[in-house]
Design brief:
Blueprint: E1 4-6, E2 35-36, H1 48-51, H2 61-65, H3 68-74, E3 77-78, H4 85-94, H5 113-116, H6 118-128, E4 160-170, H7 180-194, E5 203-207, H8 213-221, H9 232-235, E6 248-252, E7 257-261, E8 267-274, H10 278-299
């Protein structure tokens, strides 16, 4: 099928899974059918109330907004790829949370998840993002680094500076739901695109499954390496399946621009350096992000 790049707004995320959060956040949707699955033989005529999870001791955003009525309305719907409400919420059901730490408690399997299950996702997004309403508001992304007026921090107090975001590819399921083939297609598209970067952005890709011990140790020493997820929030969401298949790290020769492939998002884009020059870090981030996006579109045949 055809694919196109989904440049997910950096500020619209569900940051409740691990350090970076639940997956993917794009509000530019492809139009497509919403499916309702027939009740299988195991469920028969069992009402949704009999399937409703016990959330009485849970402290996460999903549990705060999933009512029996919402569950009954959504439990038989699926996205075009077959992703269900129960798959969205399973990580939040399995992990009640901590009384003083409120996580998100759900994940998206594909971009259509946000539309098909909007009755649950919209209020969770509003709670997590200080009232942001994806139905009436539009997140603004400004990648014009020239607007930064200062951006220099006292290096007596600042050891390093970093900017990062996540980006996903339209038409491919997100990490909680992707097949092996989809995950490998993400890797192929991204690595082929990165091979076209020039100048100070030129670099190399390291596939986790093929790394030498020396390469692995160097990436550990550089604090670049990510490892197999062990958090139950992530493993319950399906994030560790087939590890380390089609996962890897790319960085430029100066080690100041990095791309993580198939970690918690399709890609994690990072600009970083030692010291307090945040303006320079952001300039590189904006430039690199634009180049990667342009090259990914080229790899996908120019479809946007």
């Amino acid at each position: 099928g055809s694919f196109s790049v989904l440049l997910s707004p950096a500020g619209i995320r569900l940051p409740g899974l691990g350090r970076s959060g639940s997956l993917a956040a794009g509000f530019c949707f492809a139009t497509g059918p919403v499916y309702e699955r027939p009740r299988d033989l195991r469920r028969g005529c069992i009402p949704p109330s009999a399937e409703y999870p016990d959330l009485r001791k849970h402290n996460n955003c999903m549990a705060s907004h999933l009512t029996p009525a919402v569950y009954a309305r959504l439990c038989d719907k699926t996205t075009p790829t077959g992703w269900t409400l129960d798959q969205c919420i399973q990580t939040g059901v399995d992990n009640p949370g901590h009384p003083f730490i409120k996580t998100v408690g759900m994940v998206a399997g594909d971009e259509e998840t946000y539309e098909v299950f909007a009755d649950l996702f919209d209020p969770v997004i509003q709670e997590r993002h200080n009232g942001y309403d994806p139905r009436t508001m539009k997140h603004t992304t400004d990648l014009d680094a020239s607007k930064i007026r200062s951006g220099y921090f006292d290096e007596r107090y600042v050891l390093s500076s970093r900017v990062r975001t996540g980006r996903s590819i339209r038409g491919l399921s997100l990490p909680p739901a992707c097949t092996r083939a989809e995950r490998r297609e993400v890797e192929r598209v991204v690595v082929d695109a990165l091979s076209g970067l020039k100048g100070d952005l030129a670099g190399r890709y390291y596939r986790l499954s093929e790394m030498t011990e020396a390469e692995q140790q160097q990436l550990i020493d550089d604090h670049f390496l990510f490892d197999k997820p062990v958090s139950p929030l992530l493993t319950a969401a399906g994030m560790a399946r087939d590890w380390p298949d089609a996962r890897g790290i790319w960085h430029n020769n100066e080690k100041s621009f990095l791309i993580w492939v198939n970690e918690e998002d399709h890609t994690r884009v990072i600009s970083m350096e030692k010291g307090g020059n945040m303006k320079r870090v952001f300039e590189r981030f904006c430039r690199g992000l634009k180049e990667v996006g342009k090259d990914c579109v080229g790899e996908l045949g120019g479809k946007t």
